[in-house]
Amino acid sequence: MAKAPRRGPYICGIDAALDVVSGKWKGLILWELQAHGVRRFAELRRGLPGVSEKMLTQHLREMEEDGLVHREVYAEVPPRVEYSLTEDGRTLNEALSSLGAWGTDRMRREGLRTVEVAGTVEVPASMGG
Amino acid sequence: MAKAPRRGPYICGIDAALDVVSGKWKGLILWELQAHGVRRFAELRRGLPGVSEKMLTQHLREMEEDGLVHREVYAEVPPRVEYSLTEDGRTLNEALSSLGAWGTDRMRREGLRTVEVAGTVEVPASMGG
DNA sequence: CCACCCCCTTACAGAAAGGTAAGTACCGCA
DNA sequence: TGCGGTACTTACCTTTCTGTAAGGGGGTGG
Prior knowledge:
- Two copies of one chain form a homodimer.
- Chain A is mainly α.
- Chain A has a domain at 13-99: Arc Repressor Mutant, subunit A.
- The first copy, chain A, contains five helices and three strands.
- Chain A has helices at 13-21, 26-36, 41-47, 53-65, 87-110, and strands at 38-40, 69-74, 80-85.
- Chain A is globular and about 50 Å long.
- Chain A binds chain B through residues 7, 9-18, 20-22, 27-28, 30-31, 88, 91-92, 94-107, 110, 112-115, 117, 123, 127-129, and chain B through 7, 9-18, 20-22, 27-28, 30-31, 88, 91-92, 94-107, 110, 112-115, 117, 123, 127-129.
């Protein structure tokens, strides 16, 4: 999986934090996981319309390496894998909440709308979806 | 300047906010501008070691379009252009502060270090440089 | 007169990120 | 036998991002 040497030397905390959340779907994965607590691969896939299996796997692996996501594999008959946030993932989500509020505000000002996402219920207030 | 159709429909506030700060130097530009209030092109250039003129111009233009940065041109003998944060830029910076704190904390936990940057003094505490 | 500084712009090229499509291995259902 | 579901992997291609190099118009200093 020819991926990310990252964790490069950072110039400041923002730099370090952005490194970990930049990626087309990472914010959304955090969001889904925060909203539902625990999700399986296919559930996440359905929750992030437009994501490909490759990108989802790749992002989840990177987030696992970064210590944001916990991956629990059950060696069962139909394979079952459950994803959830680690403590770091939860604190990151909290740290992102003010950024989310800023973004929501901005969308309101600019008259932009959110896109409809099937199957997303009970969004945490902090995410301002 | 064949650039960014962006401002695409967003899924949540995080999405919208990340769209605006993602870019190799944008976090740092915000930081420099926050730290110094007003900066000229060449000052920013010297403050972001490694940035090319092209990237700096490009990022500054995008941030101007996004309403984060104010660009004041003085039609003087040696041309003078001053950059500063707009109100939106300042609130974005505030919203980023908790993310910066998270990142700083994370670097501490992981034993990562920041890179030395010549000429950066008086970093705002919120940025946790 | 020529280089140099200012603040860019343009053209070109490489790297990285993201997308598409197919394949893997196993099972249940009809 | 064939399809669908589970959770991926792999190869290949396109798009986006970033970097390198050079030019440009105007004025100042040597």
